[in-house]
Design a protein that fits this description.
About 35% of the residues lie in helices and about 20% in strands. The protein is α/β, with parallel strands linked by helices. Helix 4 links the parallel strand 1 and strand 2. The longest helix is centred in the N-terminal third of the chain and has 13 residues. Bound molecules: S-adenosylmethionine (SAM). The site of S-adenosylmethionine (SAM) has 20 residues, from helix 4 and strand 2.
Length: about 220
């Protein structure tokens, strides 16, 4: 019997990852270098997510983007590559150490000239942005307890039909485990419950890697 979803075996996952456009070896090298950092490398987004972010940025015609949580730069490069002519990506992170790897790969990927990296708590960087609706695209992948605050800073600055993408919304499946009450799980669960009720936006969860939530800002005159 066919279900409406296909559970991924390790082999099927490898197949899925292999069937995407790969532009050059830079991102593969970044994966290898990040793996050298040890178990922390699991923070890096999955390759199919990177390809998805590039496509999303491109089809949404994004030119002004912001990323919360840069680490060694895989998602930044993926987004920057999808931006339209003259596009700019503001990257927010608190780690000089991890983002020094990112800076190196921004140059190697040929996107350094379109990325501004700000080392500071992301909430401060976001609050300092101009208040107009100037952003087209946002990717949020930092401390989970900050997700809602990042959303509330970014949404008013997003143009109508702009996109906010959250990573890790499945949180390893813990979101449906009522016994799991740690602060990060609770923060993601509460956000997942809130977003479908927020009439300012339209959202859909995508089962890719640890789960992405895609959030589109409605136009002011759009009926919900
Ligand atoms: C999951 S990693 C991001 C992975 C990245 N998107 C990638 O593709 O490799 C989370 C990052 O968020 C950063 N971070 C954690 N708390 C932060 C905060 N309050 N403000 C800004 N960045 C923060 C960490 O330093 C870390 O680099």
């Amino acid at each position: 019997m066919h279900t409406k979803y296909t559970a991924l075996s390790p082999e099927l996952y490898e197949y899925l990852v292999a069937h995407r456009t790969e532009r050059d070896p830079v991102l593969a090298e970044l994966i290898r270098e990040t793996e050298g950092l040890g178990p922390i490398s699991m923070m890096q987004i999955a390759p199919e997510q990177g390809a998805f972010l590039t496509t999303l940025a491109r089809i949404s015609g994004a030119r002004r983007a912001v990323e919360v949580g840069t680490f060694t730069g895989y998602s930044s490069i993926s987004i920057a590559r999808g931006l339209g002519p003259g596009g700019r990506l503001l990257c927010c992170d608190v780690s000089e150490e991890w983002t020094s790897v990112a800076r190196k790969y921004f140059a190697r990927a040929g996107v350094a000239d379109r990325i501004d990296l700000k080392i500071a708590p992301a909430i401060e960087t976001l609050r300092a942005l101009p208040s107009g609706e100037s952003l087209d695209f946002a990717f949020i992948d930092a401390d989970k307890s900050g997700y809602r605050s990042y959303y509330e800073e970014i949404l008013p600055r997003l143009r109508a039909n702009g996109l906010i993408v959250f990573d890790n919304v499945l949180w390893g499946g813990s979101v449906i485990d009522p016994g799991n009450t740690n602060s990060e799980t609770k923060a993601i669960r509460e956000l997942n419950d809130f977003l479908p009720t927020d009439r300012r936006v339209e959202c859909v969860m995508i089962a890719i890697a640890d789960g992405l939530m895609l959030v589109r800002k409605r136009a002011a005159d759009e009926s919900a």
